[in-house]
Amino acid sequence: MKISLTVVGKTTDRHFIAGIDEYVQRISHYVPFSIDVIPELKGTKNLSEKEQKEREGELILKSFQPGDYIVLLDEHGRERRSIEFAQWMQKRMAAGPKRLVFVVGGPYGFSPAVYAAAQEKVSLSQMTLSHQMIRLLFTEQIYRAMTILNGEPYHHE
Fold first, then answer.
1. What pTM was estimated for this model as a whole?
2. CA-based angle 51:54:58, to the nearest 5?
3. For residues 17, 23, 29 and 30, what is the CA-based torsion angle, rounded to 10 degrees?
4. All domains of the chain, ordered by start, with CATH?
5. What is the 3-state secondary structure (H, E, C) of the chain?
6. Which of 3, 37, 114, 154 is 20 to 30 A off residue 104, Cα-Cα?
7. What is the pLDDT of residues 73-109, one digit of tens each?
8. Rg (CA), the chain
């Protein structure tokens, strides 16, 4: 089984890039992992918020494959403690999807079609965080979950 993080737009801050790359490398010791980038839309100044979400949604939906288990990183999703998240991941991976796909939307969130395609929503925090920061924090949490599942001492509780 593979894990994928689908994001809209490139990460541009070199500090975030370095941290994300570090966690991607660490995660890859446990499970095949990739970050799939949906290109940012051009000419968004002429688009309404709804139109932008719909166009980004079309691109996100095209990135999905048959057999994917889709989880949106969404402010209205369920929050879990790290150990609970690790246990949840273990159950999802044992259920046998081809890929476990986490998705970070664009600046306005997700279109109704993307919400309809998803099986679940997860929230990292009730606070508002930048999309680039979410990528770093979430890759760290996937790594943390892998170490918890493997009984390694990274997580202290």
1. 0.94
2. 140
3. -130
4. 2-149 (3.40.1280.10)
5. CEEEEEEECCCCCHHHHHHHHHHHHHHCCCCCEEEEEECCCCCHHHCCHHHHHHHHHHHHHHHCCCCEEEEEEEEEEECCCHHHHHHHHHHHHHCCCCEEEEEECECCECCHHHHHHCCEEECCCCCCCCHHHHHHHHHHHHHHHHHHHCCCCCCCC
6. 154
7. 999 999 999 999 999 999 999 998 899 999 999 889 9
8. 15
